[in-house]
């Protein structure tokens, strides 16, 4: 059942821990990153002599059994949890992906999206490369493998100069682990320590899951090398404006993760506070759409003085299923995922806080659910600006013609979803809540102004059809 939310492309993980069961630690690290990708999971390990890989479709817990982990020897590993934005959901597209290079085999896990993947692929094919997937991740992997250079950092740096878009990577060789982040820093990537060992993850929540301690973010443009001599940085290249995806802070990343050294649970509370100041309304109770809007609803309640209460109960076991509901169940739609509490809602004016509205197809039945439970008024408050443009940098988002805010005014959106009033957080209010002076962010889906030439992204469609 599609929940009408933007979906991030992937989560990546890596660990250099000689003497440890790296595959098992990576398995649990990927578990913590499951929210970033639910279509496939994969782990690659090295025992110093060879790289072993296992990839499966499905959730992390479904993809690996004890036998799989036992067949992944070694103390160095990378992992990948995937949601496809470039290339279909097929087992051949599951990461990590492996390529041969003059320096030996490399395995790569990739979070993001290359907007110039199609022309790079054609260039590689003209040079004799044979592709086995339809993903930009394979293009990226083969670009690194084929790049000139006598060592891997040099090859990565030269490949980075050709790649346009978003890429946070973990790269595995027979004896080393690398962490790489694109010069714009679109997707998050961080470093941690597990005793004497180094760990890399898309989010700090994965470090905590395996008992590792957060150290710092991988800087935009930085290449980090980890091997028997320890951890060392090969620098961030030329400084340039950064463009981290704002939706990592609004929605994608887990609220217990750190980004820019700030706990996102608190950042999202500040979004709710700003929203209350920008769009006040007389009401009796503040409700958040679980779970992603809960922190902002708490912030809205605190700033407005209108108490927060839990009124929507989420069925966390309703997810992707092969059992399709009947038409009658589809018409009730959202009740498969949420139940409302009449004791909280009946006879009350309700503020419903959500993180975003993409198509409006989920918001309308949720509003109906609140009214059926007795709410006398429903006032929608969204702790992000309206989404008016698609994403080309690693987020599965509706086409422009399907984005409700690209086609309707804010009052028209309110009428469409059936609320008494509606208010979106302004971009200025969002930046006040984020509170990272001098840091740049990508606002493409909110403003239509992208940090890369997005006309190249149109060529991505050619890649997806391969």
In total, the number of strands is: 25
Q: Give me the side-by-side strand order of the main sheet.
A: 4-3-5-2-11-10-12
Quick one: CATH superfamily of the largest domain? Aminohydrolase, N-terminal nucleophile (Ntn) domain
Helix content: 25-40%
Name the beta content range: 15-25%
CATH architecture of the largest domain: 4-Layer Sandwich
Q: Kindly identify the CATH topology of the largest domain.
A: Glutamine Phosphoribosylpyrophosphate, subunit 1, domain 1
Family: In the C-terminal section; belongs to the purine/pyrimidine phosphoribosyltransferase family.
Pfam families: GATase_7
Protein name: Amidophosphoribosyltransferase
Pathway: Purine metabolism; IMP biosynthesis via de novo pathway; N(1)-(5-phospho-D-ribosyl)glycinamide from 5-phospho-alpha-D-ribose 1-diphosphate: step 1/2
Describe this structure in words.
- By secondary structure, this protein is of the alpha+beta class.
- It folds into two domains: 7-243, Aminohydrolase, N-terminal nucleophile (Ntn) domain (Glutamine Phosphoribosylpyrophosphate, subunit 1, domain 1, 4-Layer Sandwich), CATH 3.60.20.10; 267-435, Rossmann fold (3-Layer(aba) Sandwich).
- It has 18 helices and 25 strands.
- The strands form seven sheets. Strands 4-3-5-2-11-10-12 form a seven-stranded antiparallel beta sheet. It has a six-stranded antiparallel beta sheet with strand order 6-7-8-9-13-14.
- Helix 4 crosses helix 5, helix 9 packs across helix 10 (294-304) and helix 9 (264-278) packs antiparallel against helix 16.
- The radius of gyration is 22 Å and the shape is elongated.
- The relative contact order is 0.13.
- The active site is at residue 10.
- [4Fe-4S] cluster binds at residues 245, 391, 442, 445.
- One of its GO terms (molecular function) is magnesium ion binding.
- It catalyses: 5-phospho-beta-D-ribosylamine + L-glutamate + diphosphate = 5-phospho-alpha-D-ribose 1-diphosphate + L-glutamine + H2O.
């Amino acid at each position: 059942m599609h929940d009408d939310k933007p979906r991030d492309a992937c989560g990546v993980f890596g660990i250099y821990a000689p003497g440890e069961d790296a595959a098992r630690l990576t398995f649990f690290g990927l578990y913590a990153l499951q929210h970033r990708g639910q279509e496939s999971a994969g782990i690659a390990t090295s025992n110093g002599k060879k790289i072993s890989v296992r990839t499966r479709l499905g959730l992390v817990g479904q993809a690996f059994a004890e036998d799989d982990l036992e067949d992944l020897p070694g103390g160095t590993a990378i992992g990948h949890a995937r949601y496809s934005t470039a290339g279909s959901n097929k087992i051949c597209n599951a990461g990590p992906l492996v390529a041969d290079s003059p320096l030996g085999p490399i395995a790569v896990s990739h979070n993001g999206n290359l907007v110039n993947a199609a022309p790079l692929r054609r260039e590689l094919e003209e040079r004799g490369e044979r592709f086995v997937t339809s993903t930009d991740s394979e293009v990226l992997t083969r670009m690194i493998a084929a790049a000139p250079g006598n060592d891997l950092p040099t090859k990565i740096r030269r490949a980075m100069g050709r790649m346009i878009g978003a890429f946070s990577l973990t790269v595995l060789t027979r004896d080393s682990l690398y962490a790489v982040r694109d010069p714009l820093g679109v997707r998050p990537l961080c470093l941690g320590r597990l005793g004497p060992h180094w760990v890399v993850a898309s989010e700090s929540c994965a470090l905590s899951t395996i008992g590792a301690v957060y150290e710092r973010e991988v800087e935009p443009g930085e290449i980090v090398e980890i091997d028997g001599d320890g951890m060392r940085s090969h620098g961030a290249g030329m400084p340039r404006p950064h463009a981290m995806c704002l939706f990592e802070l609004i929605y994608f990343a887990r609220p217990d993760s750190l980004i820019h050294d700030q706990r996102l649970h608190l950042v999202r509370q500040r979004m709710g506070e700003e929203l209350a100041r920008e769009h006040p309304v007389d009401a009796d109770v503040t409700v958040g759409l679980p779970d992603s809007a809960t922190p902002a609803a708490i912030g809205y309640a605190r700033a407005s003085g209108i108490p927060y209460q839990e009124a929507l109960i989420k069925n966390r076991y309703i997810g992707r299923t092969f059992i399709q509901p009947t038409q009658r169940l589809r018409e009730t739609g959202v009740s498969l995922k949420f139940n409302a509490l009449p004791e909280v809602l009946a006879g009350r004016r309700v503020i419903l806080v959500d993180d975003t509205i993409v198509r409006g197809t989920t918001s309308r039945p949720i509003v109906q659910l609140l009214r059926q439970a007795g709410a006398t008024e429903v006032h929608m408050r969204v702790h992000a600006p309206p989404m008016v443009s698609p994403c080309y940098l690693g987020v599965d988002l509706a086409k422009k013609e399907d984005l409700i805010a690209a086609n309707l005014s804010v009052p028209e959106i309110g009428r469409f979803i059936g609320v008494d009033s509606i208010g979106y957080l302004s971009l200025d209010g969002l930046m006040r809540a984020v509170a990272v002076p001098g840091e740049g962010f990508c606002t493409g889906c909110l403003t239509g102004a992208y940090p890369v030439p997005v006309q190249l992204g149109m060529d991505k469609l050619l890649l997806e059809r391969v």
